[in-house]
């Protein structure tokens, strides 16, 4: 890390600001890096860095966790998932609690591992919980396609895959011009391309920049945005992560997504239904779709009382403005999804001791 460069950029940023500027990032990795660097304390107090819905676990609907537990209990399957989902609570508890009761729940680190698991345990039904954004979708699509090509008949996908553009449209409409700039997620842009985010400046006239994940990437993004905002350049857009992000993104990955998924409305935890915001497995691959193979309750559940995750995800509140923060809600006893995931704004604030 070039400390002199960072210090100079931060000083430049602080010298430009005369009135409050709110900048939102929508990526858990950006949230973590901002907290790790202590950027909120280094930047002028007039700059408010907000954490939007960039943590996939935080926006996964409670009903989804209920479905996973229901499949586990009713159908004697093996549930395979990433570690972050284990502690997320639905109406019927969490997968961690189910594992504690002796249920077969396993953690993996790559969706492609499930192909090996399904082939190794042919006598078992394996259900993979696939949660994420455009970044995760191609690898789940590849796993689905591979399962079809290899004739695997004991593997099912329970997915909750969300799209970043529709939720940003929602936030921009809801925010009523109260968010002045956006740091766009470099990971999603790697797949979808930088052009995917140009609606932010073109339609809503809010400056935006695609940023990478090094300290200097993020500070350079904030520098760029503050400069455009203070100069009144509402239509500014810049891809500052050109070493990984092209304007059109990764064609192979997008073809895989199109091959396996349809775009449909999606449920966002604490926020509600957002039009055309989720990826659902196409009819062609329906035999792998756990929602179609297993009979599931389709009941909507209430969001936990007292949890302000919705307002936090929409940039209207910070974690410390939630009355449960550190008072009944902590990583050991999370009351909402923003405290569960290591990429959640509340968890990051709790662990790094910095307001997110
Ligand atoms: Fe929800 Fe806990 Fe965050 Fe409050 S501190 S918003 S209860 S996750």
From TrEMBL:
Keywords, in A-Z order: Iron, Metal-binding
InterPro entries given in the database record: Hyd_form_HypD, HypD_1, HypD_2_sf
One example of a Gene Ontology biological process annotation: protein maturation
Metal-binding recorded as keyword: yes
One of the record's GO molecular function terms: carbon monoxide binding
Gene3D superfamilies named in the record: 6.10.20.100, HypD, alpha/beta domain 2 (3.40.50.11740)
Pfam families registered for this protein in UniProt: HypD
Keyword presence, DNA-binding: no
Superkingdom to which the source organism belongs: Bacteria
UniProt family annotation: Belongs to the HypD family.
Protein name: Hydrogenase formation protein HypD
Organism whose genome encodes this protein: Geosporobacter ferrireducens
